[in-house]
Design brief:
The protein is mainly alpha-helical and about 230 residues long. The protein has 2 domains: about 1-30; about 35-225, Biosynthetic peptidoglycan transglycosylase-like (Penicillin binding protein transpeptidase fold, Orthogonal Bundle). The chain has 11 helices and 3 strands. The model has no long low-confidence stretch (mean pLDDT about 90). Keywords: Cell inner membrane, Cell membrane, Cell shape, Cell wall biogenesis/degradation, Glycosyltransferase, Membrane, Peptidoglycan synthesis, Transferase, Transmembrane, Transmembrane helix.
C-alpha cells in the first residue's frame, strides 16, 4: 500500500511539473513566438524517415500580415463563436456528440480554435482519453494567459496545411504562389476548407466536396467576427 502511495505521489508530481512547464511556455509566448510545435516535430520526424534531409515549409508572419479574408474564413469554418467563448463551445460539443452518436462513428469534433491550438502546440496526433483531458487543461491555460488576438495569431502560424506545410504564409505560397497578406476571399475559403484534413487535400486538391465546402465558407465569411 505504501509503495502504491509513493507511485501515485510521484505520478502526481510529474503531472504537476509537466503542466507547469507548459504554463511557462504559454507565458513566454505572450511576447515571443513559438519556434515549433509538437505537430511540427512529429511530422518532421515522419518525413525524415523517408528523406533524412527533409525540412518543413514554415515561415512566421505577424497577425497584420495575414489576410483578413483568411481570418474570417477560418473563424467561419472552424469556430464561429471564437471571440465570445472562453475556450470551449459547449453547444458545438453537444452537437458534435449527437452527430457522432447518430452516425455511429466520429464524424465531427466540435473543437474550438483554442482547443486545436492546445493540441497542435503540445500534444501528439494520437487520440486517447488522456489527450482530451490534457487538451482541455492547456486550453484553459491559453485562454487565461493570452488574449484572443494572440491565440489566433499563433494558431494561424502553426497549424498544419499540407504535407510538411505549416502556417498561413507557407500554405499561401504552397497553394497559390503568393503571400498570406494577399489571399483573395475564394483562396482563403479553400485554405480554410482544407484544415480538417490538410495532407489529404494537399494530394487531392480537386477532391469531391472541397469546392462545395469552400463556397459555403465563403458565403459565411462576411458574418465572421475576428479579433
Amino acid at each position: 500500500m505504501r509503495l502504491l502511495l509513493k507511485i501515485g505521489a510521484a505520478l502526481l508530481a510529474a503531472l504537476v511539473l509537466y503542466n507547469l512547464w507548459i504554463f511557462g511556455h504559454i507565458v513566454y509566448w505572450r511576447s515571443s513566438n513559438p519556434s515549433a510545435s509538437a505537430f511540427m516535430n512529429e511530422q518532421l520526424a515522419r518525413l525524415q524517415e523517408d528523406d533524412p534531409d527533409a525540412e518543413l515549409r514554415h515561415k512566421w508572419v505577424p497577425y497584420e500580415r495575414i489576410s483578413a479574408n483568411l481570418k474570417r474564413a477560418i473563424v467561419a469554418s472552424e469556430d464561429a463563436k471564437f471571440v465570445d467563448h472562453e475556450g470551449f463551445d459547449w453547444n458545438g460539443i453537444e452537437a458534435a456528440f449527437e452527430k457522432n452518436m447518430k452516425q455511429g462513428k466520429i464524424v465531427a469534433g466540435g473543437s474550438t480554435i483554442s482547443q486545436q491550438l492546445a493540441k497542435n502546440l503540445f500534444l501528439s496526433s494520437r487520440k486517447t482519453p488522456w489527450r482530451k483531458l490534457e487538451e482541455a487543461a492547456i486550453t484553459v491555460m491559453l485562454e487565461a494567459v493570452l488574449d484572443k488576438r494572440r491565440i489566433f495569431e499563433i494558431y494561424l502560424n502553426v497549424i498544419e496545411w499540407g504535407n510538411g506545410v505549416f502556417g498561413a504564409e507557407a500554405a499561401s505560397r504552397h497553394y497559390f504562389g503568393g503571400s498570406a497578406a494577399r489571399l483573395a476571399p475564394a483562396q482563403a475559403a479553400k485554405l480554410a476548407a482544407m484544415v480538417p484534413n490538410p495532407r489529404f487535400y494537399d494530394e487531392h486538391r480537386n477532391a469531391r466536396g472541397l469546392a462545395k465546402k469552400s463556397r459555403i465558407i465563403q458565403r459565411r465569411m462576411r458574418f465572421a467576427d475576428v479579433p
